[in-house]
Each structure stands twice: as structure tokens, then as C-alpha cells.
Amino acid sequence: MARPRTPIGTFGDIEFTTLANGTVRARVRFRDLDGRLRRVEASGRTRKTAEHRLKENLTQRADHSAGSGELTPDSSFRHLVDIWLEDLDLEGKLAPSTRALYERNMRQLVMPAFENYSLREISVRKVDRFLKTLATTKSYSMAKQARTVLSLALGLAVRYDALRENPMRDTARLRKPPVQAMALTVDQVNAIRAAVREWRRGTGLPGPPPDGQLEQIIEVMLGTSARIGEVLATRKCDVDVTVSPATVRLCGTIVSPTGKPTQRQPHPKTAKSTRTVSVPSFAAEVLRQRLVAIATEDAEHLIFFSRNHTPLTTNNIRRRLRTVLDEAGISGVTPHSFRRTVATVIDRAGGADLAAEMLGHTSSQITKEHYIEPDEKVNPVTAEILELLAPRPGDDER
């Protein structure tokens, strides 16, 4: 007659039973992915062995769940990143350039610090110290970018019930160091024009001479306030030189997705950035010249293009500008310098709201903080007003 199976007690939610053959069975209820409770069990010669094997089984089931897109507090941060990137692609709300930037920031800035942690080990203290260290040793900008992607990824962990709350919520606020926008003076702009116009124009130099597009791109940036990508994305159909003043519709940008050819994106950085601007005569003249150059092309053809009629990359234009100006002894100038210069000139003549409208900003506060060079000069009318305080004849005798 077989010996009856005798329960030998429980260990938390684990039930231990001695079987007829003398081995010990450990069983526990496990809630599966479909929400149903199922029994998971394991056996061993001793209670300790059975418990150990049961926990191994549970770990394997949890790992299998994680491999299917699940997250638990014991999931690795690396696994969270993989699921977060898949989630970004599933939503499809980000522009390809932004999606690539998020992944690059995550892998280069954040992963080295957290890849060996499980989610339960990522505390407010660890995150806070990481951001402060990054801001100190690298830059505020890098710390801000790291904060953005880390917050998004940890927010996904909260939505997947792998974390109770986002550790980012209680970290200290990053303090932005004071930065003053610097605009170019008219003399500086003219010096840049001369340097670009004269670059590699001498005799006896190897290779083909410059095609003249760089100086034309600068004129269009100065005449439109457009970002470099917006200028390079301007098409024949976006320009109207039949009206006075001529207009340019800024409605796209150039992107270079990883592993894909450079292409025109049919919308600029933000929805507000789509705008039609009237341009000054010097920019209109350049646009007329470009239209003549592509007179036989279709309406979708780009105004500026490579020798193969493909889009120019923003990085190449930046690199070429830097090379030209370095040789001319001019430092600290980027394509964005022209955008700040336009904002400052318009602010002085028409105010910050008009400058924000020209640049395609949703708020003039953005324009004032990042693009307009502060004006140290106070309105001279104050001198006339303060004449009221001037001493009058006979005041000293009273």
C-alpha cells in the first residue's frame, strides 16, 4: 500500500508536500500573462532543493514574459531600453531625426551608467547623482538630453507596472548656466561674406572651384531667419519672386536618417515653423539666380542641391562653413548665428513678438531667451524725463 502524501507546511505562498517516494514537492500559484492563476511546481530530495528549483522555474517564466515584451522590477535596464525603443516605433509620433537622436542619447549618455542595474535598483539618488555628474563633467545640454530620454524610458516602466513611480520625478532640477545670445554685427556679416566669396578662388588650387552655393545659402538664411535644414529643403514651388517683396514658404527640412539617404522631410521642426516669409532684396536676388539655374526642372526640385541633384546635408554645409571661416581667422560662427542675428535685428526694429513670428516660435519668450542679444542701451528718452530733477536758479538760496 502506497504511503499517503503528507503536507509538511508552507513557506510564504509556497506549499511543500512529501510524496510517497520520499521526495519533496514545492508548489505555488503563479499569475500568467493572460491573468489566470496556474500552479508551478518543482521537486527535490529536500525541502531546500525543491524550493530552489521552484524559484528557478518562476525566474524562467518571468524571463520568458520579459522576452515577450513584459517588464518586471527584476528586468534589466538594457531590456527596458529595448522595449522603450520598440514602443517609440509603435507610436510613430517622432520624426526620424528625433527618434535617432533619442536612441543616440540613450545609448551614449545613459546606458553606460545604468546598463548593469535592474529596474528595482534604479533609485532617485542614483538618477540625481548621474544627472548632476553629467552636467558638471560634460555640459548642461548633455544632462538635459539624458534627463529627457531617461524620464521617458522610466515612465514606460511605470506604465508596465515594473516601477511604482518614476524616479526622475523627485530629482533636483537642473540649473541652466547663464548664456547670452550673441548676434553678428553688420561688419562681421560682411567679413563672413568676403571670406566665403574668396575661399579657394585663387589660381593653381587642386580640385574644382566652389560652386557658389555656400554664399547664396548664407544670404537666404539672413533673409528668411530659416534654420539650415529649412533652407536646404526649400523647393522651386516654395519661392515666389513675382510679388514684391518676394516670398519663401518654409515647410520642410533636410534629414539624414541612420542607414538611409539624406532626404527632404515634408514638415519642419514644429507645426508653427511652417510659415511664409517676405524676404529682402539681397535674398530675393539670390533666389532668382537659383530659379534660373533650375528653370527646366519640375516644381518639386530643390533650390540648393549637390552636383548629382540630390539634397545637400546640413552637416556638410556646417563643416564647409567652419573650414572657410577657420582659414579666415573667424571663430564661433555657425548657421544658427545667422538666425540669432535676424532675431536681434527684427527685435530692435519691431519687437520680440515680430521676431518670434519670423522665426516660427510659439512664444516670444523662447526668442528672447535664446535668440535675441540683450540690448544694454536704455531708451535715451530717459534723459529728457530726468531733466525734471535738474536744479533751478535760486534753489541753493532757499
TrEMBL record:
Keywords: DNA integration, DNA recombination, DNA-binding. InterPro entries: CB, DNA_brk_join_enz, Integrase-like_cat_sf, Integrase_catalytic, Integrase_recombinase_N, Integrase_SAM-like_N, Tyrosine_recombinase_XerCD. Residues 179-384 form the Tyr recombinase domain. Residues 256-276 are annotated as: Disordered. The keyword DNA-binding applies. Pfam families: Phage_int_SAM_3 (PF14659), Phage_integrase (PF00589). Residues 256-265 have a biased composition (Polar residues). Gene3D superfamilies: 1.10.150.130, Intergrase catalytic core. One of its GO terms (biological process) is DNA recombination. Residues 75-158 form the Core-binding (CB) domain. One of its GO terms (molecular function) is DNA binding. The keyword Cell wall biogenesis/degradation does not apply. Belongs to the 'phage' integrase family. This is Site-specific integrase. It comes from Georgenia yuyongxinii.
